[in-house]
Amino acid sequence: MHWITRFSAIFSAALAMILLSPSLQSFSPAAAIRSSHPYADEFKPQQNSDHSSFRESPLFRNAEQCRSSGEDSGVCNPNLVHVAITLDIDYLRGSIAAVNSILQHSMCPQSVFFHFLVSSEIQNLESLIRSTFPKLTNLKIYYFAPETVQSLISSSVRQALEQPLNYARNYLADLLEPCVKRVIYLDSDLVVVDDIVKLWKTGLGQRTIGAPEYCHANFTKYFTGGFWSDKRFNGTFKGRNPCYFNTGVMVIDLKKWRRFRYTKRIEKWMEIQKMERIYELGSLPPFLLVFAGHVAPISHRWNQHGLGGDNVRGSCRDLHSGPVSLLHWSGSGKPWLRLDSKLPCPLDTLWAPYDLYKHSH
User: Fold this and answer.
1) In sequence order, which ranges of the chain are alpha helices (DSSP H)?
2) Which domains are seen in the chain, by residue range?
3) Mean of per-residue pLDDT scores for the chain
4) pTM for the whole thing?
5) The dihedral of CA 87, 88, 93, 98: what is its sign?
């Protein structure tokens, strides 16, 4: 465990930069924080939805220059920033940390409206959220029925990727009110260390979704050899310049989504997958099939992804070079489990300040 001591000073400096400078205009910690610590074990979460499990969030309020959040006008107020995130028992601790990070780094936190997606225990989860964030009035819980998508889900490389709630993002245009014309979708295993309004204001042009793209990735690996050799499918991306993008951070134009019925397009590919087995990675490939090559590019600072390690060994990862606005523990390893196990990756310490789980302190 001597390596933890050696990294403590680096952690303190990095955390100070995050906490003291929410805008992170010049934060580039990749050169300062490096890890090679392997992490191969998987841990089961030991938490529940009891209200006493989480501490009350720190206070937050709008700055003077913020426009009125219009609490009386509800979800349809045009001054609101809309954020959608799932609430699941296994990832609840991560979701609460994500919300806490958004509120702490936002200049206008009372102008952020949270759309929480659940598939079970709706009443218990809603009361937990309200007790943890008692000053958070702009929120609504949406029930996503697992049977909506259950019959379309195929087996994946990890069982966690097969959960119906992973597919709720496909149905945001149906679940959210028609007056909500744009939404930021966020996974539960991330923290935002910048003002979320900067992401909200991203221009999408003629595109329906925006996300950081990674065109250096080997795009062909996201589909099976059978997909690429089958003449029915291998022309799917003709005339497009498809790049990998992570669906855990997306800005979505819901008005366009509804107009072009993208949910049906995604479902069609899922139906084909059930019959032909054209991919292995859960909910990501249908998005790639529909949108890759038609994505509004967003700065990579808004998705420093892969911090959970690879899907097999869960090994530690480094940050990509450049500034950071969002840290994302996509992959098999989650920071709360590794911290509790006393076998954290170095970057997991950057998640810890936003953790409101009582037994972690």
Assistant:
1) 2-20, 92-105, 122-132, 172-175, 196-200, 225-229, 254-260, 262-276, 284-291, 335-340
2) 77-304 (3.90.550.10)
3) 85
4) 0.85
5) negative
